[in-house]
Amino acid sequence: MEAFTAHTGRAVPLRRSNVDTDQIIPAHWLKKVTRDGFEDGLFEAWRKDPEFVLNRPERDGATVLVAGPDFGTGSSREHAVWALQNYGFKAVISSRFADIFRGNSLKNGLLTVVLDQEVVDALWDLTEADPAAEVTVDLEARQVRAEGITADFELDENARWRLLNGLDDISLTLQNEADIATYEAARPTFKPRTINA
Amino acid sequence: MGRTLAEKVWDDHVVRRADGEPDLLFIDLHLLHEVTSPQAFDGLRQAGRRVRRLDLTIATEDHNTPTLDIDKPIADPVSRAQLETLRKNCAEFGVRLHPLGDVEQGVVHVVGPQLGLTQPGTTVVCGDSHTSTHGAFGALAFGIGTSQVEHVLATQTLPLARPKTMAITIDGELPDGVTAKDLILAIIARIGTGGGQGYILEYRGSAIEKLSMEARMTICNMSIEAGARAGMIAPDETTFDYLKGRDHAPQGEDWDAAVAYWKTLRTDDDAVFDAEVVIDAAELAPFVTWGTNPGQGAPLSANVPDPASYEDASERNAAEKALEYMGLTAGQPLREINVDTVFVGSCTNGRIEDLRNAAAILDGRKVADGVRMLVVPGSVRVALQAVEEGLDKVFTAAGAEWRHAGCSMCLGMNPDQLAPGERSASTSNRNFEGRQGKGGRTHLVSPQVAAATAVLGHLASPADLSDALTSAGV
């Protein structure tokens, strides 16, 4: 995973709540067996509308998505995170994320930032009035900054440390392999097995 | 202080706990399917890792599988390639797989319980958000992303922060004709699609205790639609009776030891939940969705709501967009909404009891002209049981299509899809825009409402049939 320290870029204001993962990446894209090539599927149905915010020329190259509450609800598909990253997004800001989506995003280095809806509203107003306005998402300082806006955000220390260092979860877990083996040795015999011994 | 059911199961699986770190949790059962696993196996290959516990891992094919002509090569080359990738990966790593055509094939969340692999007090994960289904057995079961699939394959553990707990207590008697599906739709409408975020739900109360395992699975299945990764129900005699004698259920002394442990899996009287919701079963009625998220639902007797009636700006905006997408008008009676398609199936309502409930309504009746009805059993075993009971003949005699097992029109990754503008009454779990096909419009319903809707051609409950049966069952 690529490390994330701070990022500054232009934003896409997405004034919608309950953006589910079926909207982020429709199911027919899930047949791919790679982690790349999902950018054209991102918000596929909405992008058919030339007026959809992502299609506006002034949003070309924007890297921060500012969305309404309950972003990423529904399916566990990590393809939703890959699609956002493949398209070029580095961070998503919302007042509330679905749990599985949030977990998936942090595993991939896509920073999901929770801010109060009033701050999200202010970011929408700013970036709609001035599409060139830049938004900084600073993980070291746990702060989002834009013209006239400074907002601190929370992220647990462990997740932040993993992101800042781009650490691989599996390697970290395997450092505790002895604990896993100890646990396994003590499991009751009545626990189910998929392969009968 | 006492502990909740969720806390007990959690504590029993902690491999490592350290300050400033998430708990490292052992995973008892890892279910795989073709859609969310290919990139995980790739990751293992690149790192030179093996699957740590093949004996706790099992795979099936469900999302892409066709429900017609399953003896022929799969027509869609991309779907075919994804299924072939799963077969190749399972062969290379040694994972037990039930492919299309196998008698144990089916929707992953139907297969685990029917094999007896899903047991009380276990941790169950799968790269699919409806893994919450397995919580019906008192298991801690939740959906994970592909990175976590790889993590579990490699380590049989997951680092996780402990969620909060929420009690959803439903006391009293469900009125005649009100099902588990109506109950969970009503719960989601009440707490919202984000209401369960950060929580493990525990469904409890006398109305829950009376439910069958199939009905409990329907409820736990849709916990994720309320934003909760997991929903649980304490195991009881109904659970033990369901499990006894199944392929992978414990036997002999192991059975006795297991039951003794399972009986401890109840929330202590002095345990404290972080949040509580109380619902009176007697107030419930057949429930359907009118919008584009599962929280946008109402009793079937209601009208399409007026977006202007919402105080919250974001809810108002969501309702406006939903009515536009769904082609509905505020104030329109829900019962007057005509459908083109009826789908009975999915991990929510594709079990034998669901098929029995739908068949009981259709017996001796006909699907309305111009309505297409698909009945897709959740697994091959469910299909075989239905055939043994003659349910397939009831469906075909009524004019419905009896199909092979799979996820099918729940998400339309196979050819079973709605055309743009088409409207369905569906026993599945998500009414998202385009979920069942580009431009398709979905109303979530129970199997009984689905069957009555198929007969009348508009959203309806069994009580609306002029020669209504006295009881649709729960």
Q: Which oligomeric state applies?
A: heterodimer
Instruction: Note poorly predicted spans of chain B.
Output: 468-474
What's the end-to-end separation of chain A, in Å? 38 Å
What is the helix fraction of residues of chain A, given as a range?
Answer: 25-40%
Main-sheet strand order of chain A equals: 4-3-2-1-5-6-7
Annotation, overall tally of beta strands of chain A:
7
Number of strands of chain B: 19
Can you offer a commentary on this structure?
The complex is a heterodimer of chains A (197) and B (474). Chain A has helices at residues 21-24, 44-47, 79-87, 99-108, 117-129, 157-165, 169-174, 177-185, and strands at residues 6-14, 64-67, 91-94, 111-114, 134-138, 143-146, 149-152. Chain A contains 8 helices and 7 strands, in the order E-H-H-E-H-E-H-E-H-E-E-E-H-H-H. In chain A, 32% of the residues lie in helices and 17% in strands. Chain A has a 7-stranded mixed sheet with strand order 4-3-2-1-5-6-7. Chain B has 474 residues and is an alpha/beta fold. Chain B has helices at 5-11, 38-47, 77-93, 108-114, 146-155, 180-191, 206-209, 213-221, 237-243, 253-262, 313-326, 346-349, 352-362, 380-388, 391-398, 447-456; strands at residues 14-16, 23-26, 29-32, 57-60, 96-98, 123-126, 140-143, 157-160, 164-171, 199-204, 230-232, 275-280, 287-289, 297-299, 341-344, 372-375, 401-402, 423-426, 441-444. In chain B, the strands form 5 sheets. Chain B has a 5-stranded parallel sheet with strand order 5-4-3-6-7, sandwiched between helices. A 5-stranded parallel sheet of chain B has the order 17-16-15-18-19. In chain B, helix 2 packs across helix 5 (146-155), helix 13 (352-362) packs across helix 15 and helix 13 (352-362) runs parallel beside helix 16 (447-456). Chain B is globular and about 55 Å long. The interface between A and B is large, with 63 and 90 residues.
